Amino acid sequence: MARRLAALGINVRSLKSGPAWRQAQIRCTPNYMVTNTPSNWLDARKRAFAKLRSQSVTEKANMPLKFKPALCSCITLMALVASTAAHAQQEPKAGKRTLIRAGHLLDVKTGKLSDAQTIVVSGDSIQSIGPSSSTSPQPGDELIDLGNLTVLPGLIDVHTHLTMNTDFDPFHEVTSTNAKEAINGVVNARKTLMAGFTSVRNVGASGFVDVDLRDAIDSGQVAGPHMLVSGPALGITGGHCDDNLLPFQYHQVSEGVADGIAQVQHKVRENIKYGADVIKICATGGVLSKGDDPQASQYTLEEMQAIVADAHRLGRKVAAHAHGAQGILWASEAGIDSIEHGSYIDDAAIAMMKKHGTYLVPTVYLEDWQIENGHLPAFYHQKMVDVSSVAKKNIKHAMESGVKIALGTDAAVYPHGLNAHELDVYVNQLGMAPLTALQTATINAADLLGLSSKAGTLEAGKWADIIAVDKNPLDDVRILQNVKFVMKAGVIYKQNGNEK
């Protein structure tokens, strides 16, 4: 393997032996590749690797296009291990304690601010929290003095696309590859973590690249937040989650396309088979897709009921992209766990969501960013203008009506790392109380993700996911756009405003 990669220009000498290298070796063996990829690639990958074993470098360079994905995925994974090995954070040592001296500690349940508190971290979890005056360091403890900073739990974004970026030029879209998206993911995962978001739900990625990104983060190869991932989003033929840019002759179909009850059931099971933690579907048309109407429902009520039945039975929640009111109502009635966007939500949909306890995940800052900075193709731009003209008014009404809200950003529609700007919109444009807004990114988000026992508040036994800012965010929520300290699972990634 090393000789093959070296022949292709990759310096494998820079890689150290260890778990990351061994994992990469395993993932690049023909046996792994043919048993951990969708069935339609099996024969192609077998033939590709059989051919690879006997080819010269010149022959490899001229390999037919249909045989290159397996080799490309292998090379990309190995290169990513090489480029990130030096930056990966070490797992906290078992038994080692870190004492974090907090000038001020914010309780996001009540809004109470306690002065001079110490958080004792052991391994990846919080051991205790108490007054600094009664918490003395023991031999071997590491002491982190955060001075006058305000400490709070790491933030949670329940709607990200870490493997994507803001380039929506059609040529860029049709020439994107899983390898490029894997590289995007490594870069954007780090940006998101440094912005103070220690957990995310990634809702939509090609080729299960988000599954591999999650696993690389969990193993310590790559810096990034805790991730729950969906793999390819499910959608109807010609819908928002299909690939509609190329003409008929190319017969291009997105990986998540499934029509009818039997197909959607199969697709749910397939996504779970390949590592999905959550199922993402497109219940209505969207903005950044060609030829569909954001207000039009796409999946039927019966199809969504089938999706939910299988997902819930197999222990997965379901998130539904839904702009139009009919699609929102049907999705909530079907038992969907969260509605993403909700731009055209009406009173009937609000009532249904309250009845079923369905979360709404507004993604409203993206509208401001796109109107001011976006350079969308005309067939995207007009839909963005139309949706932006009504979404905030409707979402504000839903908030005031008592619909449960969890923070999501749709990061990738605007640059990663700006996630906290969503809170600014909630408070300063939609009139949400600062504490309520902060709870959407902590307590509520953790509840939606099923992580309440691990994240969302600073309490003994939970993950040591801790951030700090210059002052109380309840006085000015925009302070969360400039996080000074980030710890995730007991590992410090940012201190004094500087990345480690």
Account of the 3D structure:
The protein is an alpha/beta fold and 500 residues long. It contains 18 helices and 16 strands. Strands 1, 2, 3, 4, 5, 13, 14, 15 and 16 form a nine-stranded mixed beta sheet that branches. It has a four-stranded parallel beta sheet with strand order 9-10-11-12. Helix 6 (68-84) runs parallel beside helix 8, helix 8 (178-194) crosses helix 9 and helix 11 (301-313) packs parallel to helix 12 (325-334). It is globular, with a radius of gyration of 23 Å. Mean pLDDT is 84; it is low at 1-75 and 81-87.
Total strand segments: 16
Poorly predicted regions are 1-75, 81-87
Number of helical segments? 18
Level-2 CATH architecture of the largest domain: Alpha-Beta Barrel
The main pleated sheet reads as: 9 strands, mixed
* Overall average pLDDT: 84
Q: Look at the structure and name the CATH superfamily of the largest domain.
A: Metal-dependent hydrolases
Q: Briefly, what CATH class of the largest domain?
A: Alpha Beta
Q: At the third CATH level, what is the topology name of the largest domain?
A: TIM Barrel
Count of the domains: 3
The computed structural class is alpha/beta
Given the C-alpha coordinates, what overall shape results?
globular
Q: What is the beta-strand fraction?
A: 15-25%
